[in-house]
Design a protein that fits this description.
The chain has about 60 residues and is of the alpha+beta class. The chain is built from two helices and three strands, in the order αβαββ. It has one domain: Phage tail protein beta-alpha-beta fold, CATH 3.55.50.30. The longest helix has 10 residues.
Length: about 60
């Protein structure tokens, strides 16, 4: 999912610790604002922060 988000929003991904192993199923609209995506990640227990064009995942 993170790789797809990176492609859709032209972001670089930086994992600051090990890669999360959460499994997600479902559909996501490509037109969703990045703030909504970040809220979803945070609500799923994934610490994520957007800095410019870099998405930091803890």
């Amino acid at each position: 999912m993170i790789r797809q988000i990176a492609r859709w929003y032209d972001l670089d991904i930086v994992y600051q610790s090990k890669i999360p192993e959460e499994l997600f199923t479902g559909e996501m609209n490509r037109k969703v604002d990045t703030d909504v995506v970040l809220d979803f990640l945070k609500g799923s227990g994934i610490k994520a922060e957007l800095r410019g064009k870099t998405l930091l995942i803890e």
